[in-house]
Design brief:
By secondary structure, the protein is an alpha/beta fold. Helices cover 40% and strands 13% of the residues. The chain has a single domain, classed as HUPs (Rossmann fold, 3-Layer(aba) Sandwich). Helix 1 crosses helix 7 and helix 7 packs across helix 8.
């Protein structure tokens, strides 16, 4: 049973990064029945992200569903799914972050909801855990509370088999706050990856994602086992 006494089943959108790792541990603390969903949409760092997600799920003793989104996102490839290099001098393009992928979270949440329904008995409540955090909302419209509320309403209007909730436990957290919470929850940072560039699983240390990670670990005064040599 969950902490609130319900029989909800939780599904965590598990990217292999910091935010989703914290969401996974949060879900595991709150629910007895947890599964993970990982999306492969052609991102350059998919190999290490998937490896991390699978290892996190394995250590938690839960199944992970792999959703292949390459064909869908390949029709409008932008952001981290293009074969290009990112650095500290290239943080924006056409008015938004270089990591922007059009309609990404709307796609991922609706597919996660469908995956969850397919793997949950009729009538049980479903909770989707999505790792949007405060810094994301500044640049990505689909990481803001208004979007999450609208997505939740739309998803529930599309089904009469389950009640589906979208939980965003770190949406009001800065990246440093996310790290602090993760420290409390015992998250293994070695199994997280934040880089936009593909260097055979080694972070570049210079792209916007790496810089944000460096700043957050420095603020919290915690050693980063992934970027320690960068």
């Amino acid at each position: 049973m969950t902490q609130d006494g319900s029989n909800a089943k939780a599904f965590v959108l598990l990217s292999g990064g910091i935010d989703s790792a914290v969401c996974l541990q949060t879900a595991l603390d709150r629910h007895d029945d947890v599964e993970a969903i990982h999306f492969d949409y052609g991102q350059q760092t998919e190999a290490i992200e998937r490896s991390n997600a699978e290892e996190q799920a394995s250590r938690a003793g839960i199944p992970v569903h792999i959703s292949d989104y390459r064909t869908v996102f390949g029709d409008f490839a932008e952001g981290t799914i293009e074969d290009k290099s990112y650095d500290s001098d290239t943080t924006e393009r056409e008015g938004h972050s270089v990591g922007y992928v059009p309609q990404r979270n709307l796609h991922l949440l609706t597919t996660a909801a469908a995956t969850a329904e397919h793997n949950t008995e009729t009538g049980r409540e479903i909770v989707l855990y999505h790792g949007a955090q405060q810094g994301d909302g500044e640049e990505y419209p689909d990481c803001r509370p208004e979007f999450v509320q609208a997505a939740t309403e739309a998803i529930n209007r599309s089904t009469d088999q389950h009640e589906i909730d979208i939980e965003t436990p770190i949406i009001d957290h800065t990246k440093a706050d996310v790290l602090r919470l993760g420290e409390e929850l015992g998250v293994n940072w070695e199994l997280t990856f934040s880089c936009y560039n593909d260097e055979d699983g080694t972070p570049c240390g210079d792209c916007p994602a790496c810089l944000e990670r460096k700043e957050a670990f420095a603020e919290v005064d915690v050693a980063d086992p992934v970027l320690r040599d960068r």
